[in-house]
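A.,

Following up on our hallway conversation. Structure tokens first:
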């Protein structure tokens, strides 16, 4: 009905109805417990009167204090299920699990009994309380009303106190609950969001092999290997299985014959499912195997691996996750694996493979992030939370948050350096090849401001047939160019005052000083940073669907430092997207480190270039935290998908897979039913029914952390000032977008009158309401008997001007990021 009539509902009314639908899961927690308590009551009390209800309409009797009436369905096997109830003089209401619809008017209630043909029937039962409720029953009632349901332990504990002094016990329970620290949903979500990541993004950095809490596994293949080529070779009875030339396992049994294959499906556990197909196959003709334990047979391969001393650090298994562990660094100065290590061995002769995971910083209000020394640990040094009324008095000056200062030492853009960007900093830096002189790059050298020419030793096989004057102009420009230090290409400017006819010049080849020079694409042999594109390229998702490796990541994983532009892509796509690939220079150039794009100015590469200074810019920077912005914990596995880009979200590798929009409900139901601060969680849930926010209209369907951060406002302020609660709700970007005052402008700035939505809703729904009330809660009436309104339309128009000028804060990292750009 909500969906059918949504067009006729106000925005807020529609949201309330939609939220009621969303709350069904939440209500299940308490309704199930109510059902169990009702069954317990029925078990200890015999019905004092019973009457059978035939199908049709029935008037329901009124109850009095101490009485309980229940409409119950009795099945053919004598099982009993409550359907409706009334007690202590209250109106009749539906009861779980059957929930018969009850109608009441002026205290008179009726019910429609459905027909039944399975031998079952309905009864009306009356129960009268047998004396005062026991301490256990009183404790259960209190916990049902003030918490998300009791368990045996909490009932027994409270009942023991109630037996001594009931009033003091209740007061003591309430004070004890209020004294408990708030359990924040955002913190719980972040702790269990540990997706794979190999290159830093706006969301966060990468835990490296040399970092404490880095993750490792004992099985040879992971889901990341799906679509990659598998090579099996045999030597002296030992079968070596390789991916991208890297040995993953050495076996002494021929479970797979020597040859080339494609990895089609992987189950991440030792002896889990492993499906392989023919090379370059669409995974149709499959061979079923098991995922082997990592083992090496040749002593040379074993000796080449890093040995983790037991006295230095240990691998601790992850609870509930098979064959996976995290690295625990012990006290002192433990010997950790090198940062570039991919496999290590323990003193117990076990072999473990590194599994790079996202690293979220601890950056709470009371403990702002102190920054990091490594680009891999955190992409932007410090999360850089804006200073607001919320952080005032809690920000700290952190020297490590000030920007690093890099020198201008030269870095040679050769094969070794380009590989180092990947091996040291997990950056996908490539030389670009395969770019074509097609529209919009089919411009003649005669008209282009600068053109690029590629060098080949020796004269051309055949020079292009150019007009003689044009040929002389271009040859003189190439020979006279000052760009002579690069061994592969030369960027040339043609003298516009000389004759240069465009015919046959695009892609021309000319012999200059006995060497051949060919006109090429202006970005040919450019060195570019593809790290952002490795996550945001649209083709990555299609490749994953087709069981193929990531086309941006796979060259680096295979040991290559070049990337070839696909022949089936139009050159207009490069023209549109090359802005996302920061330019370092050309292959063979020597460039100053300080002039490189900031995305590749990592500590590791600065050390390689000798360009890392001991100084920091500005001396120190002010660091501010954010409520619930805790670090993630790899030891808690990966239970929740977290968007790092639109395509990288960790959902495919969840320990317990769920659909993308389920995380909010899963986090909520887990926290409210398991946390110790039950009263606070119950109050926060009540507040959420008034300070309504729905993902409909705010686009938080997939943005879990954004929604949980808003809900935590209610959790943190559950026992505080409503004024402060309303203040923080009003400054939330979620509320600003939902009730449409984000980027709201006044008449002079915007050309129209400001949006009045929030100015009205904050009065009507969040505070004073539509009508003034007397102290007893009844409507205040004027002399004519009409209800006195609390505000007028003039008030709304005046207040709407106050809700202008609100804009979102600057993009930052260390948070879930659907777009992948820090916004």
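Then the amino acids I'd put at each of the 823 positions:
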């Amino acid at each position: 009905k909500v969906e059918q009539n949504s067009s006729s509902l106000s925005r807020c009314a529609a949201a309330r109805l939609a939220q009621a639908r969303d709350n069904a899961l939440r209500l299940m927690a308490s309704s199930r417990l109510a059902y169990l308590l009702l069954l317990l009551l029925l078990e200890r009390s015999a019905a004092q009167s019973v009457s059978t209800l035939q199908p049709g309409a029935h008037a329901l009797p009124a109850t009095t204090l101490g009485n309980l009436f229940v409409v119950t369905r009795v099945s053919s096997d004598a099982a009993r299920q409550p359907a409706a109830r009334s007690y202590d003089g209250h109106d009749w209401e539906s009861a779980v699990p059957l929930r018969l619809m009850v109608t009441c008017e002026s205290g008179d209630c009726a019910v429609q009994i459905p027909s039944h043909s399975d031998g079952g029937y309905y009864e009306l039962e009356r129960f009268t309380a047998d004396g005062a409720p026991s301490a256990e029953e009183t404790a259960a009632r209190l916990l049902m009303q003030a918490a998300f349901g009791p368990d045996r332990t909490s009932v027994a504990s409270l009942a023991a106190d109630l037996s001594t002094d009931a009033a003091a016990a209740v007061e003591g329970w309430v004070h004890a609950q209020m004294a408990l620290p708030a359990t924040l949903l955002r913190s719980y979500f972040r702790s269990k969001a540990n997706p794979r990541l190999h290159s830093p993004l706006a969301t966060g950095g990468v835990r490296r092999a040399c970092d404490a809490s880095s993750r490792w596994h004992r099985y040879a293949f992971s889901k990341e290997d799906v679509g990659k080529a598998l090579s099996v070779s045999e030597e002296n009875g030992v079968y070596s299985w390789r991916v991208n030339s890297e040995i993953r396992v050495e076996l002494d049994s021929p479970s797979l014959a020597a040859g080339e294959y494609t990895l089609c499906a992987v189950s991440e556990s030792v002896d889990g499912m492993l499906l392989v197909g023919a090379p370059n196959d669409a995974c149709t003709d499959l061979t079923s195997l098991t995922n082997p334990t990592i083992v090496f047979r040749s002593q040379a391969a074993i000796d080449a691996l890093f040995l983790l001393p037991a006295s230095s650090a240990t691998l601790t298994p992850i609870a509930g996750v098979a064959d996976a562990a995290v690295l625990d660094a012990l006290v002192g100065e433990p010997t950790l694996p090198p940062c570039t290590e991919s496999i290590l061995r323990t003193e117990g002769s076990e072999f473990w493979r590194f599994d790079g995971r996202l690293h979220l910083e601890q950056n709470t209000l009371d403990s702002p992030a102190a920054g990091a020394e490594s680009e891999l640990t955190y992409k932007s040094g410090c999360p850089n939370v804006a200073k607001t009324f919320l952080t005032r008095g809690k920000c700290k000056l952190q020297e490590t948050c000030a920007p690093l200062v890099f020198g201008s030492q030269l870095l040679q853009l050769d094969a070794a350096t380009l590989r180092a960007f990947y091996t040291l900093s997990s950056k996908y830096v490539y030389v670009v090849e395969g770019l074509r002189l097609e529209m919009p790059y089919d411009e003649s050298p005669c008209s282009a401001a600068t053109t690029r020419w590629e060098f080949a030793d020796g004269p051309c096989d055949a020079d292009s047939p150019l007009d003689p004057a044009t040929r002389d102009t271009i040859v003189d420009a190439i020979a006279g160019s000052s760009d002579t230090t690069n061994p592969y290409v030369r960027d040339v400017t043609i003298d516009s005052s000389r004759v240069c006819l465009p015919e046959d010049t695009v892609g021309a080849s000319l012999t200059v000083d006995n060497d051949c020079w060919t006109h090429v694409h202006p970005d040919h042999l450019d060195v570019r940073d593809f790290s952002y594109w490795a996550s945001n390229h649209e083709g990555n998702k299609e490749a994953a669907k087709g069981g193929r490796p990531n086309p941006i990541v796979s060259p680096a994983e295979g040991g290559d430092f070049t990337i070839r532009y696909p022949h089936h892509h139009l050159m207009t796509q490069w023209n549109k997207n090359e802005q996302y690939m920061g330019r370092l220079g050309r292959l063979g150039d020597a460039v100053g480190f300080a002039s490189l794009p900031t995305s590749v100015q990592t500590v590791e590469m600065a050390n390689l270039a000798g360009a890392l200074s001991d100084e920091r810019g500005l001396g120190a920077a002010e660091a501010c935290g954010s409520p619930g912005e805790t670090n993630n914990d790899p030891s808690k596995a990966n239970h929740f998908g977290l968007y790092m880009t639109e395509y990288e979200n960790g959902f495919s590798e969840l320990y317990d897979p769920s659909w993308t929009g389920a995380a909010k409900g899963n986090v909520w139901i887990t926290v409210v039913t398991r946390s110790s601060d039950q009263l606070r969680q119950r109050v926060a849930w009540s507040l959420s029914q008034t300070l309504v926010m729905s993902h409909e209209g705010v686009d938080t369907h997939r943005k879990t952390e954004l929604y949980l951060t808003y809900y935590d406002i209610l959790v943190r302020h559950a026992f505080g000032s409503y004024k402060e609660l309303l203040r923080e709700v009003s400054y939330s970007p979620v509320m600003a977008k939902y009730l449409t005052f984000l980027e709201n402008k006044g008449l002079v700035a915007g050309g129209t009158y400001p949006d009045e939505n929030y100015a009205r809703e904050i009065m009507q729904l969040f505070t004073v309401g539509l009508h003034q009330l007397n102290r007893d809660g009844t409507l205040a009436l004027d002399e004519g008997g009409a209800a006195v309104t609390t505000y007028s339309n003039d008030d709304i128009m005046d207040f709407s001007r106050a809700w202008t000028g609100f804009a979102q804060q600057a993009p930052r990292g260390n948070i879930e990021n659907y777009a992948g750009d820090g916004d």
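Residues 1-15, 20-44, 373-380 have pLDDT under 50 and may be disordered. Curious whether your intuition agrees with the design.

B.
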